[in-house]
Design a protein that fits this description.
The protein has 2 domains: 3-157 and 294-348, Alpha-Beta Complex (Quinone Oxidoreductase, Chain A, domain 1), CATH 3.90.180.10; 159-290, Rossmann fold (3-Layer(aba) Sandwich). The longest helix has 14 residues, at 296-309. The strands form 4 sheets. Strands 3, 4, 5, 8, 9, 16 and 17 form a 7-stranded mixed β-sheet that branches. By secondary structure, it is α/β, with parallel strands linked by helices. The protein has helices spanning 42-48, 98-101, 149-152, 158-168, 184-195, 210-216, 227-231, 251-254, 279-282, 296-309, 323-331; strands at residues 3-8, 17-22, 30-39, 65-72, 84-87, 90-92, 113-114, 131-135, 140-141, 176-180, 199-204, 220-223, 237-242, 257-265, 287-290, 315-318, 338-342. Helices cover 23% and strands 25% of the residues. It has 11 helices and 17 strands.
C-alpha cells in the first residue's frame, strides 16, 4: 500500500503534526486524487480532540477536498486523469438500503462511511494529506474556474449542509427565509438563499456583522438579542435555517415562523439546546427539524448551482503548519468565514515514512 504524507494526531491530547499513512491501491472502481485544497470544518476539531467520543486514532481530518485526478481504475467511466474533482463528507455507503436507493446516502440505514473516522473495514483518513483514493460514486465534478478552487473546497461541507435544507423546504421567490448565525455555515446560507431568490433575513448577536451580511446577500439584518427587533418579525417567516453550534433559546426563533413554518437546525452543539415550549409548535403547526449534509446527487447539483451563480465560500488560506492555530482561532470565531489549507505546503511539513 502506498505511503502518503499527511497531518494528523495520534491522540485527543496531542496537536496535529506530520505523519505517514497508507492509502489503498487504486481498485477497478477507484479514483486517486492529488489534493490541492482542503477546507477546515468545526467537525475536524471535534474529531481530532475526540469531543464526540468516537474518534479512531490516528486521526487525519478533512472532508472539504478539491484536487486533480491522477489515476483511475479500469472500470471507471466518469473520470479521467487531469479532471478537477471534489470529495465531501462521505466515501461510501451500503448502496442497497432505501435511503441509498433514493440518492440520500447521508441517511444510509446501515451508516455511511465518513471521509475520515469512517468505521467500515478500517479507519478512514481525510483530506489533510497529499492524496486520497475514493470510489468513483463518491467523487464530484467541479466546474468552477481554476482561480476559485480554494474557495470551492468549503462547498463540499458548508455549502451542501445549507443548500440541502434550503432546497428541501422550498427557499425561493416569494419566501421569507431567516438565517441564524453568520459563520462558516451561515454565510453560505445567506449566499445560497439569496441566489435562490428568497427574501433573506440574517439573525446575529453581533451588530458589527450587519454590513458584511448585506454584502453577502441579506436583505435585512436583525440583532437577535434585541427583543424589539425580533418582535417586528413575529409570525412572518416561511423557513428559518439555524446554523448556530451553541445551545440557545429556540423559542425566540420559533415564534417568528408563520403557520406551517419550519426551523431547521444544522449547527451541532456539544450540549443540548434548552427544550422549546411545546405551545410554540402546536398552536401554529410549526415544525422543528434537522438536516445532515446531502447525498451525492444533491451535492453535485449544489456544485453546479454554485458554478452557475458564481458562488464560493469566503476564505482565509493557511499553510498546513498553521492548522493548530486555525483551530484555536475557529473556536474564537476569528475567521471570515472558512479556513482552507493550501496542500502544496504539506510537503514542507510532512515526511514520508
Amino acid at each position: 500500500m502506498p505511503h502518503t504524507r499527511a497531518y494528523g494526531t495520534p491522540a485527543a491530547s496531542q496537536p496535529l503534526a506530520p505523519l505517514a499513512i497508507e492509502r489503498r491501491a487504486v481498485g477497478p472502481h477507484d479514483v486517486r486524487i492529488d489534493i490541492l485544497y482542503c477546507g477546515v470544518c468545526h467537525s475536524d476539531l471535534h474529531t481530532a480532540r475526540n469531543e464526540w467520543g468516537n474518534t479512531l486514532y490516528p486521526s487525519v481530518p478533512g472532508h472539504e477536498i478539491v484536487g486533480t485526478v491522477t489515476a483511475v481504475g479500469d472500470k471507471v467511466a466518469k473520470f479521467k486523469p487531469g479532471d478537477t474533482v471534489g470529495v465531501g463528507c462521505m466515501v461510501d455507503s451500503c448502496q442497497h438500503c432505501a435511503s441509498c436507493a433514493d440518492g440520500e446516502e447521508q441517511y444510509c440505514e446501515n451508516g455511511f462511511t465518513g471521509t475520515y473516522n469512517g468505521r467500515g473495514k478500517e479507519n478512514t483518513w481525510g483530506g489533510y494529506s497529499e492524496n486520497i483514493v475514493v470510489n468513483e460514486k463518491f467523487v464530484l465534478r467541479i466546474a468552477h474556474a481554476a482561480e476559485q478552487l480554494a474557495a470551492v473546497a468549503p462547498l463540499l461541507c458548508a455549502g451542501i449542509t445549507t443548500y440541502s435544507p434550503l432546497r428541501h423546504w422550498g427557499a425561493g421567490p416569494g419566501k421569507k427565509v431567516g438565517i441564524v448565525g453568520l459563520g462558516g455555515l451561515g454565510h453560505m446560507g445567506v449566499k445560497l438563499a439569496h441566489a435562490m431568490g428568497a427574501h433573506v433575513v440574517l439573525f446575529t448577536t453581533s451588530p458589527g456583522k450587519q454590513a458584511d451580511a448585506k454584502r453577502l446577500g441579506a436583505d435585512e439584518v436583525v440583532i437577535s438579542k434585541d427583543p424589539a427587533q425580533m418582535a417586528l418579525h413575529a409570525g412572518s417567516f416561511d423557513f428559518i435555517l439555524n446554523t448556530v453550534a451553541a445551545p440557545h433559546d429556540l423559542d425566540a426563533f420559533l415564534t417568528l415562523l408563520k403557520r406551517d413554518g419550519t426551523m431547521c437546525l444544522v449547527g451541532a452543539p456539544a450540549t443540548p439546546h434548552p427544550s422549546p415550549t411545546v405551545f410554540n409548535l402546536i398552536l401554529k403547526r410549526r415544525q422543528l427539524a434537522g438536516s445532515l449534509i446531502g447525498g451525492v446527487r444533491e451535492t453535485q447539483e449544489m456544485l453546479e448551482f454554485c458554478a452557475k451563480h458564481g458562488i464560493v465560500s469566503d476564505i482565509e488560506m493557511i499553510a498546513m503548519k498553521d492548522v493548530n492555530e486555525a483551530y484555536e482561532r475557529m473556536l474564537k470565531g476569528d475567521v471570515k468565514y472558512r479556513f482552507v489549507i493550501d496542500m502544496a505546503t504539506l510537503k514542507h511539513e510532512a515526511k514520508a515514512a
